[in-house]
Amino acid sequence: MPSATLHWPVEDEKGTANVSSAVVSKLSRPVLYVFAISHYCEKARWALDHLGVEYDLQHLAPGPHMEIVKQLGAVGSSLPLLVSEECVVQGSGDIIDWAESSIADSSRGLNPDPEYEDECRLLEQRLDDVSGVHVRRYYYSEALVEHPDTVRPIFSRDLPPAQRQSLEENWSIVRQLMMGAMDLGREQGQESRRIVEGELDWLDGLLSDGRRYLSGGRFSRADLTAASLLAPLALPKEHPTYGTLEVPPRAQADLALWTERPTSNWVREIYREHRLSA
């Protein structure tokens, strides 16, 4: 479980690297670096909580985060990023793999029973590569492009004072960089909306047979991935951040339209049952 947020000065996925001795000397337990708003970061955070991994939580601001990621020797600049005494692990799926190898009680594990391993990994890959990517672009193409002041407060959440001030002063630059990096715009948002609706249709179809979990008979990394990456659409009360998320107007209308879809109800139910510590 996370301790109080560290004040150590200075989106998804993958790779490991060695940690410098200077960083290791500062660590008493792993540190998870996140953006407060990121659904991929929520996936990693939820996994560590579920598996009972003790860690410290460090929120970073977009922009300044690139320097600390570079200092740690990670590949690229994406979060989440976990630093332990042995390694740097980048990307939510790899963080789950690392955590699974670190726990003593395998009964708490998120990996499915062996007969469901391939199915579970394929589900997670599609959710990571399609559902999560287009939920993000759909949301930001309205929020960050048209209503940027609704996004800044949640990025500022739990930041050290120096980073918060830097984000405030450089918000217009950070916003432009994010818009370019994620290919945001009105047409892109409409394209991602169509893809998101297709992903909801796909998941509604999987759930139509009455299954409780997506793969096998118990809660697995596929369920955690689906619920965390679709949480921006379902807004579960148990989410550690989205209670303060200000949803822009067109997305509000869509969320109202989608709120009683089987997948949206399933996401909220999974959070109620399994997101016990946030």
Describe this protein's structure:
This protein is α+β, with helices and mostly antiparallel strands. It folds into two domains: 15-108, Glutaredoxin (3-Layer(aba) Sandwich); 114-274, Glutathione S-transferase Yfyf (Class Pi), Chain A, domain 2. It contains eleven helices and five strands; from the N terminus they run E-H-E-H-E-H-E-E-H-H-H-H-H-H-H-H. The protein has a five-stranded mixed sheet. Helix 2 (39-51) links the parallel strand 2 (31-34) and strand 3 (56-59). Helix 2 (39-51) crosses helix 9 (221-234). The chain is globular, with a radius of gyration of 18 Å. Mean pLDDT is 89; it is low at 3-22.
Low-confidence parts lasting 5 or more residues at pLDDT below 50? 3-22
**What is the CATH topology assignment of the largest domain?**
Glutathione S-transferase Yfyf (Class Pi), Chain A, domain 2
Distance between the termini: 8 Å
Mean pLDDT: 89
Q: In CATH terms, what is the architecture of the largest domain? A: Up-down Bundle
Short descriptors:
278 residues, alpha+beta, Glutaredoxin, Glutathione S-transferase Yfyf (Class Pi), Chain A, domain 2, 2 domains, 5-stranded mixed β-sheet, 5 strands, disordered N terminus
